[in-house]
Design brief:
InterPro entries: DNA_mismatch_repair_MutS_C, MutS, P-loop_NTPase. The chain is built from 24 helices and 14 strands. By secondary structure, it is α/β, with parallel strands linked by helices. It has two domains: about 230 residues, MutS, DNA mismatch repair protein, Chain A, domain 3; about 190 residues, P-loop containing nucleotide triphosphate hydrolases (Rossmann fold), CATH 3.40.50.300.
Amino acid sequence: MKASFGKLKDDAFDFDYIQKYFRNKDHSEDFQVLSDKTCNDLDFEDLFILLDRTHSKVGQQYLYNQLRTIVVNENKASLNETLIKKITEDSDFRLSVQKRLDKLNRKEAYYVSTLFQEEHLHPPKWFFVIKLLSFTSLISLVLAFFNPMFFMVLLAVFCVNFILHYWNKKNIVEYVGSIPELLKLNSVASHLYVNDQFKKLSTDLPKSMAIINEVKSRMRFFQLEAKLQGELEIILWFVFEIVKTMFLLEPLLLFGVLKRLNTKRNHIHDVFQFVGHIDMLISIASLREGLNTYCLPNINAENQIIAKEMSHPLVFNCVTNDVHLSEKSVLLTGSNMSGKTTFIRALGLNIITGLTINTCFAKAMTFPLLKIFSAIRISDDLLNDKSYYFEEVLTIKELLSISQDGNNLFLLDEIFKGTNTVERIAAGKSVLSALARNGNKVLVSTHDIELTDMLLNQYELYHFSETVNENTVGFDYKLKEGKLKNRNAIKILEINDYPKEVIEEAMEISKEMDKIYTTN
C-alpha cells in the first residue's frame, strides 16, 4: 500500500457495479449532474480510471458519484483539504486507514448500496405458514424424545421445509453478500471514527452506527453463511444446512432483517458516505502525489476563465496551454489533428475535476461556478431512423433551452457539420450567438473561416496550426490568438501522394472559391 501511493491502480474496472450507487442516488438538490452525453464526449470513464486510487468498493462508488455531480459546499472543501494534507504527510496514519478500507474491497461490497437504495423483498402472503412449520419442527423434535412417533412427524415436516428452504435460496442469494459487507462497513466506520479529524465529517455518525448495530446479531447469521461457503469444511456446512432447513431459519431471519433494515436506510447511507468520503480523500491525495503539476482552483463569481499551463489529464506528455477568457466565448480554427478538440476537452475536464475534487491539471486555474454541457461526439441513431444531422439538431436544441438559465459552459465541435456549407454557416452563426448570451461561455471549433468575421462581437478568435514541409506535417499543439490564415489541407494531400491531376484541380477550385467569397 505504501509503494502504490501516487501510482495508477492496477485493477479491473466494472462500470456496471461502479455506477450502481450513482444511478440510484437522488440528485435533486445537487447543482448539476453530468449527463451521459457529456461524459461520453469527454472520455469520462478513462478519466475515472486515471483518478481512482480508492481501496474499497464503497469508496470507488462514492468517488464515481462525486465526479458525476457538482455540489457547492465551501466548508466541506476546506475540511477536505485539511484531511488530504494529513493523509499525504503522515504515512503511518494513511496506512492504518487504508488497511481498514481494504476490508471492503471484495466484489460483494458493491451491493451494500442496494440495502438503502433499492426495494427490499417482501414476505409472501402465506408467510405465516413458514412460522407455523418452523414451530411444528421445534415441538416435534422436543416431543420425539418422549414419543418416537413424533420422529415421523418431524420427518414429514422436514420434507415440506426442504422445499421451502430451497425456494428461499433465490431470495437469500443477493443478500448473503451485501448483509455481511454491511457489518464490515459498520465496523470499519467505527474504527475510523476514533480519529478526531474524521469526526468532523459527520457528527451524527455514532447514532447511525448504533442503530445498525441493533440488528447486528440477526445479521451475523448471514456472515456465518458466507464464511461457511468459503472457509469451513464441507461437513460443517452440511450440518448447518440441515439445521437451517429443519427450522426454516433462512426465510425467518431474512425477512425479519430486511424489515428492520428498511427503516434504517438513511442511517446505512450515512455510514456508507462517511467511509466512502474518507476513501475518496485518500484517492485524491494519491492522485496529487503522482502528478508533476496540479493546483487547487480559484472558484469565484467573476465571469472569466484563466488557466496557466493547463494540460489534458489523459494525454501523456501533454503540451500545456494558457487560457484567458473574460467576457467573450472562444471560436477555434485549425486543421484536423492540430489539437482543437483535445483543447476543448482539456478545459472541460479541468473545470469538472476542479469543481468536484478541487484539483486541476495546471499551474493555476480560475473560473466561476458553471454547469458543463457538450456536443462533441454525435452519431447516427439507425435503430430509431435518425440521421447524424437530426441527432445534432436535437442535441443543439437542448443546449439552446439550457442556455436561457445562464452560467453554463458549452463545449462544441464543428457545429452542424452534417449539412451543406451555406446553411451550416447561417445556422451556426445564429446558434452560437444565442448560446453565448446570458453569461454563458462557449468553446467551439470550426473549419468555417466565415464564422470568424460574423462572431467577432461575441467570440475571441484562437487557432491551432501546423507546419508543412516538403514531405512532413508537424504540430506544436499551442493555442494562438487570431484566426487561422494558412490552409494546408490540399498540401497534405500532395504529401500523401495523391494523383497530380487531383491536386491541380483542387488548387484551381480553391482559388475560384476564394474569389467568390472575397467578392461577396
